[in-house]
Amino acid sequence: MRFHLEASFRLSADAAAAQEAITQFFAEAGPILQKGAPEGHGAEISQWKLIGNRIDLTIESDRYVRAHDAVLRLRKPLAELLGKKYHIGVRGLDISKFEIEVESDRAIEHKIPYVRSINFENGLLKLDLDVGPSGTLGQSEIENRIPDRIVSLLEEKLQTYGGKGEHWELLWESAEREPKFNRDPTEEMLKSGWIKHGSSRGQWIYGPEATHIFRTFEQIVLDEIIGPLGYSEMIFPKLDTWDVWKKSGHAQGVYPEIYFVCPPKTRDPAFWEEVMDYYKVTHEVPLELVKEKIDVPIGGMCYAQCPTFWGFLQGMTLANEELPIKVFDRSGTSHRYESGGIHGIERVDEFHRIEIVWLGTNEQALAEAEKLKACYKHIFEDILELRWRMAWVTPWFMAQEGKTGLAEMSGAGTVDYEAVLPYNGNWIEFQNLSVNGEKYPKGFTVKAQSGEPLWSGCSGVGLERWTSAFLSQKGLDMDNWPNAFRRRFGEMPKGIRFL
């Protein structure tokens, strides 16, 4: 990786009288430009020139001391030199050219912020950053580490193209169980009138029968997990603002999968009168006109459920005796735009979950995860009698950082629970459990009284996924359901029948 930077220090006055001192300063700048780099590496000034109240310089560097870091390192000692003896200040930094070269075996077509052009030639990607009088990258962006983030983003894209796959490692698998059913449960529920399509894509209306299954699963979770492990119920907001997603890390890549929320520019009826009048005349909603009258998105509908919880703790210090904190939320729907991947009730845009969240020391977080795993195993083995398995997988936040192996997780990570679907032989993820390490406490600045780092975990119980896994193996006939589940289910409610 190579960096080429052409920049100018703006001075408060003509510095001709300081020519000799500036010459000596740049001649002896090697230790500043190579500090922290291996021997033979770092940055160097390939040329410089004093022109009145401006010092133009060109810096070449490798990845160890990047050129934009090097120019910032020079600013303070140069200002001290000119200020003390010559009473000249360094007023600012102008960037006239900034190029980055990265080795690659392929071109990339994506646009990258602050990059004017990307060319691929002779095994190198050459980035020309958008600098200059009309450019978007200047001193402020340099100080805010934008070039480093550009490099990180570029490396992430190259790694993605290289096909670094998600880690998956089997941990445990149940014994073989003969399925009682071999048809798509969604289709069978539709035929039986248990469910109907909603008016939106990936959305279902659940009749009394299906809803009672959901509520039975919910009660099992309350009886076998929430109560015994001492979790308290909370209500988390179901609108995630950008501020929440920035702190949780989702803002790095959530955009293709969220339903955006846009408020009206005003609630003044006069502003909306033409929209209302158009509908009164045509009985059609003028969507293009509506689009002009709504504001920019303030965030999106609930995507992962637990991030909004952290606003309750944000910036706070927790007393030692409060730990571990154990809460859950079941107050509303979650929404993800599944593109072309929607299927039945197991892959939907609107779904129902119980979100379990815990927070404590490293030891407490890991111990709580083990307790939850034991509870899930009891439920899936002894109550639902599923054919299922557990696997370590790459959690979303590590995948974004290019980490995939168990050795990199140091206790943090995600366990996926998968059940086989007899009608097609595929395995479906129907439950997960994640130990997220320090990610959320750090992101939301939550601390412990002891000063010990805080860890957190979360586990989402997806009612649609549990229903898909259970009914695909057991079917809709209650006689084929395990006794332990049937006792909890009770009587089948009377559904709605039509002529």
* Mean pLDDT reading: 92
> Main beta sheet: strand number and arrangement?
9 strands, mixed
Could you tell me the number of beta strands?
Answer: 22
Q: What portion of the residues fall into strands of 2 or more residues?
A: 25-35%
**Cα gyration radius (Å):** 29 Å
What's the tally of helices? 15
Low-confidence stretches: 161-165, 404-408
Beginning-to-end CA distance, first to last residue: 72 Å
Shape: elongated
Class per helix and strand makeup: alpha+beta
Helix content: 25-40%
Comma- or semicolon-separated keywords:
nine-stranded mixed sheet; six-stranded antiparallel sheet; alpha+beta; elongated; 32% helix; 499 residues; 27% strand
Protein architecture, described:
With 499 residues, this protein is an alpha+beta fold. 32% of the residues lie in helices and 27% in strands. The chain is built from 15 helices and 22 strands. The strands form five sheets. Strands 7, 10, 15, 16, 17, 18, 19, 20 and 22 form a nine-stranded mixed β-sheet that branches. Strands 2-3-1-4-6-5 form a six-stranded antiparallel β-sheet. The longest helix is centred in the middle third of the chain and has 22 residues, at 208-229. The radius of gyration is 29 Å and the shape is elongated. The termini are far apart. The relative contact order is 0.11.
